[in-house]
From TrEMBL, chains A, B:
SUPFAM superfamilies, per database record: Ribulose-phoshate binding barrel (SSF51366)
Gene: pyrF
Enzyme Commission designation: 4.1.1.23
Active-site residues from the entry: K105 (proton donor)
Reactions accelerated catalytically: orotidine 5'-phosphate + H(+) = UMP + CO2
UniProt xrefs under Pfam families: OMPdecase
Gene3D superfamilies: Aldolase class I
Pathway: Pyrimidine metabolism; UMP biosynthesis via de novo pathway; UMP from orotate: step 2/2
GO terms, molecular function: orotidine-5'-phosphate decarboxylase activity
GO biological process: 'de novo' pyrimidine nucleobase biosynthetic process; 'de novo' UMP biosynthetic process
Keyword Glycosyltransferase: no
Signal peptide interval: none
Name assigned to this protein: Orotidine 5'-phosphate decarboxylase
NCBIfam families on file: pyrF_sub2
Length: 310, 310
């Protein structure tokens, strides 16, 4: 799956991923009204609005992008109905040939991590049958519990030829509270980065490992160091755009081969129609605004890479 | 809700919580067969087996215990159907007057943590209506992202008079890989413990904070230190029994008032009928085996507390 992701990045000349993190406030009124008319102002109505919103954005962008990253929390907030919309979104994106990164940030003790891994990446056995639960291609994992919370995910990834992105340095303002603490003069995120590189050796693709890392766009100096610590690790970079990360800073997350990183934008793409730059599209043509935002983001990042000689 | 939890612990003389973490392998054949007969060897069949299994154990133990802790991963592995069984379990336990601790170990950047908090503890707004998603009383939270990943949970807890248990030192063998790393001579888990004590001040009950901590039974020396660092924090203690934690070690997690900790057992209670000590009950009377295991666990912990003068 890491090879498929890289192939799609190269084909599309787009090391970008669209974060399908729909807040109800991002969804145009006409989409919500239609959904509420059908299913009421209920959890099912909200889920329907999210699903219709996602579908239109995917239809309008799938030929330009390699991957999407639905953030499960945005669905889980609507309970079971929300999770049904999550599953529909995952399935639809896969039908469209997209790589799906489930942003689930799970992680627990061994047997529990194994259950999450089966539910999101692998199959679960019921009597003589086996079933995929959510069936994403990659998921994000929290490393706080250490190796025995991570390796059960890797075991399932090996079986299914799927992958992970493990949190190393997150994009949020207070990520440094624990992650930047110095251990023998070295910050915790570097220690986690070293571990990710080691875990990566357990499950290698052709050039890069199936076991990737999450490093926020908002900390480019740290990204530069982590790039060196984890040379074979694909880095998923959240925090571009709305959170403040800039393309010229992001070149440090890439290797000299122009690969090694994939940059996420959520709000900047899916709620593009709300920005001044795309206001001309209007609410009704929000999928066209998202398409234009993808084109602009790709151009922004690709020219920064060219300028940096990558 | 922390006051309710403490009141129920005192009424039942039982600082214990039953972990409703049903693996299919724990469920007696006759329960699985009945469920599969009704719904097939499918995800829905597995979910039905889990629900019937849980219900019988709850019916047989609810008058002895203050709380249950369903581990959501064990449900999530069966996809949507599994999560429906999780929700049914949460609702049923609350009907029975039990405090429900959702063991979800979520945690993300601010807006995403807010979505998880709304989905699991609070209400989500849809048009003019608001709805509870999963509606647990407490949830567990992973602190790796720092304050801005935790405070959105606390905000919802304040609104709903609900609480958290934040991972400090987990019970698994490799928890020390990151959690024990020394920062200025002090392990990371102590730093997290200090933060939990601070966060706790944001949302106090009468004697204890609504913001608790998770400290594994398998590390009693660390439990002793953390008890001092977080005097007003309720400690949720996993790892008793099957994972190796012993009652005499657990007294260090309690304060002199005999309060301050609640000990979890999952497999040891829900799969008691599989242990030699309870084999006499047989598969069919598995709920009676669980009831006896609860009585024995309560006796084990209460006499250790009495011996320790707590």
């Amino acid at each position: 799956m890491i090879d498929k992701l890289i192939r799609k990045i190269e084909e599309n000349k787009a090391p970008i991923v669209v974060g399908l993190d729909p807040m109800l406030s991002y969804i145009p009124d006409h989409v919500k009204e239609a959904a509420y008319k059908e299913k009421g102002e209920t959890l099912a109505g909200a889920a329907e609005a999210i699903w219709q919103f996602n579908k239109a954005i995917v239809d309008s962008t799938y030929d330009l992008i390699p991957a999407v990253k639905p953030q499960i929390a945005m669905y889980e907030q609507f309970g079971i109905e929300g999770l049904i919309a999550f599953k529909k979104t995952v399935d639809y994106c896969k039908e469209k040939g997209l790589v799906v990164i489930g942003d689930i940030k799970r992680g627990d003790i061994g047997s529990t991590s194994a259950a999450y891994a089966m539910g999101h990446l692998g199959k679960v056995q019921v009597g003589n049958n086996s079933f995929y639960g959510f069936d994403e291609d990659f998921v994000t994992v929290n490393p706080y519990l250490g190796s025995d919370g991570v390796v059960p995910f890797i075991d399932v990834c090996k079986e299914e030829k799927k992958g992970l992105f493990i949190l190393v340095k997150t994009s949020n303002p207070s990520s440094g509270e624990f992650q930047d603490q110095l251990i023998d003069g070295k910050p915790l995120y570097e220690l986690v980065g070293e571990k990710v590189a080691q875990w990566g050796e357990l499950h290698m693709g052709s050039e890069y490992s199936y076991i990737g890392a999450v490093v926020g766009a908002t900390y480019p100096e740290m990204g530069k160091i982590l790039r060196k610590i984890m040379p074979k690790t694909y880095i998923l970079v959240p925090g571009y755009g709305a959170q403040g990360g800039k393309a010229e800073d992001l070149v440090h997350y890439f290797n000299k081969d122009g690969l090694g990183a994939i940059v996420n934008s959520s709000r900047g793409i899916i709620a593009a129609y709300k920005q001044e730059a795309y206001a001309k599209f209007g609410q009704t043509a929000y999928p066209d605004a998202s398409r234009q935002a993808v084109i602009d983001m790709r151009e922004d990042i690709m020219s920064a890479l060219v300028n940096a000689g990558k």
